[in-house]
Amino acid sequence: MRVLGFSKKWDKLQRPEHTTFRFPRKDKDWFEGEIVQEVYKPRSKEREVLRVCQIARKEPKQLADITHEEAVEDGFINLYDMFQWLQNAHKNKDMHTPINKLTLK
Predict the structure, then answer these.
(1) Closest Cα to residue 4, out of 44, 53, 46?
(2) Which pairs from 26-29 meet CB under 8 Å and 24+ separation?
(3) Does the global pTM surpass 0.85?
């Protein structure tokens, strides 16, 4: 079972179904039906296992195609806030790279 790490305890993590956006992994990308362990601060002494869930849906998207509603559902104030967070979290990432929208249950 692979770890799906979170650096913030988003409110969405309390819902039985929620989404998260992740850039594709170079080793083995996420896939529908995969069982994952959601972990807060996975590489820290403050590591906390939140829950085990399943990737119910994986939807590849371009950043330009993400809607305001999807950004808000994901826990951001608006789309601009989401883009700012992605740029800060992934400083060396090409922002034209497709991103995965994962729906977790």
Answers:
(1) 53
(2) 29/100
(3) yes
CA 80, CA 71: separation in Å to the nearest integer? Answer: 9
**How many angstroms separate the first and last alpha carbons of the chain?**
15
pLDDT digits (tens, 9 = 90+) for 21-63: 999 988 999 999 999 999 999 999 999 999 999 999 999 999 9
Query: What are the extents of the domains in the chain?
Result: 2-66+96-104
Long-range contact pairs involving 89-97 (C-beta distance under 8 Å, separation at least 24)? 89/7, 90/23, 93/23, 95/63, 96/62, 96/63, 97/23, 97/24
Amino acid, res. 35: I
**C-beta separation of 82 from 61 below 8 A:** no
Whole-number pLDDT of residue 5: 95
Q: Which of left, alpha, beta for 86 (phi over 0: left; psi -120 to 50: alpha)?
A: alpha
